[in-house]
From TrEMBL:
This is Alanine--glyoxylate aminotransferase. Keywords: Aminotransferase, Pyridoxal phosphate, Transferase. It comes from Adineta steineri. It is an enzyme of class 2 (transferase). GO terms for biological process: glycine biosynthetic process, by transamination of glyoxylate. Substrate binds at residue 350. The modification N6-(pyridoxal phosphate)lysine is found at residue 197. The keyword Iron does not apply. Its EC number is 2.6.1.44. Residues 26-341 form the Aminotransferase class V domain. The keyword Transferase applies.
Length: 388
């Protein structure tokens, strides 16, 4: 059967993103038992393929119904106990929100906060780690509110040098599947994400991958985990069972979404993951050069080295605001996102370029966005730059 999704506005926000026909069709798969042989094979292979995306052999995936926010709850409830000190590297809205979640479980949070458009430096991190013993350090790989790309590899290197017992936690919601992540090589303890961004699947799945060290900490903690659905002690036997071909029940998995994830991961892992990272980087560079060189607009990240490959955050020019641009894009069948960071909320907008929008150039989606932006800014009197 050949399936094509209905015509719809082009969704280029920083998630959810456009999904392929194959993935959407898999999401409409017939009902089946979550204990059946066919689903057990699907789920087991999905777990194995997720490891490939994160370049890990030792990490333990935990894939459940939920959103990226559930990943925060899992990390906070499983890895912290009341009174534990946590250092949050804050590069925008989502660093702050992760902090709020950690505090809800009794953690004592210290922020290492960067100015808008920046990420804390190696030296700042090392100094912070020398001042206090932290249970863990959290880093938002791509903060969707600013488009700032952090450096988990650098963070882990500094932590291992200064405070080797401290866990390194990566919020990869807007990076997994589109940005380089090497979980084992970088000695990351947890990487969490959700289905609706770089993995190219409809919303509804929370995906976490946990190191052996972090699992040992959970299994030997002094106090009882203050969650039930989010407890990794409940989920670990389930994930291990499905991977071994022996389904274990705790809570009914979202079967159709896992079938969709399986289909997406099968496509992703059919080629070296480095190719996918490279294609996202190429698409991002091309789009950002258009924004800077042709439109003459400034981006929120203050340097290309800290600009995400999965999205672009763009300041409006003087005298232009969201109502001048975003509704006009929608009139041309393009949906983008407004500002999110409270300090600059009305000064910028955000465009996502992940998954098939970035890597399948035959769809011409980013070219459509560029053409439309070019016409809109010309129409409102913002003269585009000409290149030599």
């Amino acid at each position: 059967m050949t399936f094509h999704q209905v015509e719809h506005p082009l969704l280029v926000i920083p998630g959810p993103i456009e999904v392929s026909d194959d993935v959407l069709f898999a999401n409409a798969s017939p009902s089946q038992s979550h204990m059946s042989k066919s689903f057990t094979e699907t789920f087991g292979n999905t777990i194995r393929m997720f490891r490939q995306v994160l370049v890990t052999e030792r990490g333990q995936p935990i894939i459940t119904a939920g959103s990226g926010t559930l990943g925060w709850d899992m990390i906070a409830s499983n890895l912290t106990e009341p009174g534990d000190d946590v250092l949050v590297l804050n590069s925008g809205y989502f660093g702050q929100s992760f902090s709020d979640c950690l505090e809800a479980y009794g953690a004592k949070v210290t922020h290492l906060k960067a100015p808008i458009g920046q990420f804390p430096s190696r030296e700042q991190l090392a100094e912070a780690l020398k001042l206090k013993k932290y249970k863990m350090v959290t880093v938002t790989h791509v903060d969707t509110s600013t488009g700032v790309l952090s450096n988990p590899q650098m963070v882990s290197e500094v932590v291992r040098q200064v405070s080797p017992d401290t866990l390194v936690i990566v919020d990869g919601v807007c990076s997994v599947g589109s940005e380089e992540i090497r979980m084992d090589e970088w000695s990351l303890d947890v990487v969490m994400c959700a289905s609706q961004k770089g993995l190219g699947v409809p919303p509804g799945l929370c995906l976490v991958c946990v190191s052996e060290r972090a699992i040992h900490l959970v299994e030997t903690r002094k106090t009882k985990i203050s969650a039930y659905f989010a407890s990794w002690l409940n989920w670990l036997p389930v994930m291990r069972g499905y991977e071994q071909g022996k389904p274990v029940y705790f809570a009914t998995p979202p079967i159709q979404l896992i079938c969709a994830l399986y289909t997406s991961l099968k496509a992703i892992t059919s080629r070296p993951i480095e190719e996918r990272w490279s294609k996202h980087k190429e698409a991002s560079l091309d789009f950002k050069q258009f924004v800077t060189n042709e439109l003459g607009l400034k981006q929120v990240p203050n340097d290309p080295s800290v600009a995400a490959n999965s999205m672009t955050a763009i300041y409006f020019p003087d005298g232009v605001s969201a109502p001048d641009v975003i509704p006009k894009l929608f009139e041309h069948g393009i949906i983008v996102a407004g500002g999110l960071h409270k300090e600059i909320k009305d000064k910028y907008f955000r465009i996502g370029h992940m998954g098939i929008t970035a890597i399948d150039t035959t769809r011409h989606e980013l070219e459509k966005v560029k053409d439309t932006l070019r016409n809109i800014f010309t129409a409102i009197g913002h003269a585009a730059k000409t290149t030599d």
